[in-house]
Protein: GAF domain-containing protein
Organism: Massilia forsythiae
Amino acid sequence: MQSNIKEDDPILTTSEVARLLGVATSTVQIWMESGAIESWKTPGGHRRTRMSLVQGLLHSEEAARNTPNPGTDPEYQPAIKPSYPVASTERSRLAALAASGLVDSEDEARFDRLVRLASMVTGSPIALISLLTSTRQWFKARVGVAARETPRDWAFCSHAILNNELFVVEDAMEDERFRDNPLVQQDPHIRFYAGVPLRDKSGQPLGTLCVIDREPRRLRAAEVQSLLDLADIASSEIQGNGNGNGRSSRH
């Protein structure tokens, strides 16, 4: 019986899966870690899966709709000549974001609560959970702005995800990186920004929890700690998001 299982449904390595799906091995590793591809770890710490599970991704119409494919979606391909700063891991970061399934998903109470709290504890009129594809920043949750997204070129969060913890701009009009930004010159007239990276299980920064004000300011120590704590909670929610189906968790 065991021999039939091996013959009919062989075990595949990440490299073999990558060749079958036409994506990078690093992308397969991220999909396995996030749960987008069912897998297990060997005693040596290597990911493995079954051919049947990969065939399901290749042939299932539902999987074709719901499984992200960074290899074909330009939103999850690094920009050729980005006008915003990127890390050397941008390709893997975008693959992780695609695997999360969070971009363009439904509103969820768990994230809405976190931006409301971030706004309240820092006294900021605007608070966002922002996710960064290669072409836009999309707001999973927001307080104080009506827009659901902006071009990636305008995103302060592109700078924030390069940091380990808190990224602060106390006065955007005095910062040459941002003074000509449309979000500074026009509505919502950003002057103050503070953002914390939100990371998935593999440590990739998918976006930020950020607060914004229309006046220059600084955060007090207690406000900084509260924002960091809320970002930790948001990251934990993202890491527990399964395969990123975007279903609401309202209760």
Remarks:
- The domain at 1-67 is CATH 1.10.1660.10 (Multidrug-efflux Transporter Regulator; Chain: A; Domain 2).
